[in-house]
Design a protein that fits this description.
Helix content is 76%, strand content 3%. By secondary structure, the protein is an all-alpha fold. One of its GO terms (molecular function) is monocarboxylic acid binding.
Length: 318
């Protein structure tokens, strides 16, 4: 019989995984429709699309098996399946922070003033989006290559020391040194990208502050519409970065605590999984609520009608 605590935990994982997966899928569906209709995506739309895919995969590879485990479904995966799931999760989790960082840096370049230095970067940046995706995939696939070797299906009996007990899989480490080094390496990698995105966001905030001081004197409606759209897009990026930093901080506080414990309790591991997946689950709803293109597409499909001139008149500089 399932106790109240387990039920609450299971429902929490179910809601987080279900709603988050739905939100990311809606973003991908909206962009698929935009590609079908317009045959192209803007650079930032490509970044949003890739971020939604990475976040959806985070939820599918971690949230789904974790939810099933909480509800008492045992022996979900064998050794090979554990290795595939853990390896995929490590890659897409890393991609989530990398792409959020890429988004903040690209938006900083977009709103930067047109000077001799920035002009060249502004011209080159859009053409380097797809190569950046490819580079991030290859780098993270290489960095996470050790994950499958330490992953295995749970065994009956005592859990070995220095094992991350995920419930559906175990991640074993030989000793405390390898256990701590792995934790530090993952945290430091994420910290580098978090620092970059925070710096980029601070630069965007500085530019927005300067812009707000000047915009009062601007009377051109076309110019105002362009800068207002850029400002809205920049604010979305800052909110996404803030959302990631909050849950990154909670995730790593728990992770540091886990590094000091030889046998990590499944309850602590569950808490970390929940908070580390919050960004993947909540970010799509922030994007949907703030992105006029996606809202227009979803509204069009839900009502099964949308005036063509209204659809083409929407130009959201994301």
């Amino acid at each position: 019989r399932m106790d109240l605590c387990t039920m609450i935990k299971g429902v929490s994982f179910l809601l987080e995984t279900g709603l988050g997966t739905l939100g990311n899928f809606l973003i991908l569906l909206a962009y698929a429709y935009i590609v079908f209709r317009e045959h192209k995506l803007s650079p930032v739309d490509m970044i949003f699309c890739h971020l939604a895919f990475a976040n959806m995969m985070v939820l599918l590879t971690r949230g789904v098996p974790q939810t099933m485990t909480v509800f008492g479904l045992c022996n979900l995966l064998n050794d090979v399946e554990c290795k595939i799931v853990i390896y995929t999760y490590r890659i897409v989790r890393a991609l989530s922070v990398c792409i959020t960082c890429l988004l903040s840096m690209f938006q900083a370049i977009t709103v930067a003033p047109v000077t001799s230095t920035w002009a060249s970067i502004k011209m080159k940046a859009p053409n380097n989006i797809i190569p950046s995706f490819l580079a991030l995939w290859l780098i993270n696939m290489a960095v996470c290559i050790a994950a499958p070797f330490s992953s295995k299906a749970p065994r009956n009996g005592t859990v070995p020391e220095y094992t991350l007990n995920l419930g559906f899989c175990h991640v074993d480490f030989k000793d405390q040194v390898s256990y701590v080094i792995n934790g530090i390496a993952v945290t430091m990698r994420d910290c580098i990208f978090v620092i970059l995105m925070v710096v980029a966001s601070c630069y965007i905030l500085l530019l927005l502050h300067r812009h707000s001081q000047k915009v009062k004197s601007i009377r051109s409606s076309d110019r105002n519409q362009k800068t207002t759209a850029e400002t809205r897009a920049a604010k979305i990026v800052i909110m996404l970065v803030l959302l990631y930093v909050v849950f990154f901080g909670i995730d790593n506080i728990i992770w540091i605590a886990m590094l000091t414990i030889a046998k990590v309790s499944p309850v602590i591991a569950d808490m970390r999984v929940f908070f580390s997946s919050c960004y993947a689950a909540l970010s799509p709803f922030l994007i949907i609520s703030s992105n006029k293109k996606i809202k227009a597409v979803l509204r069009c499909n839900s009502q099964q009608r949308e005036p063509r001139d209204q659809a083409t008149d929407i130009s959201y500089v994301t």
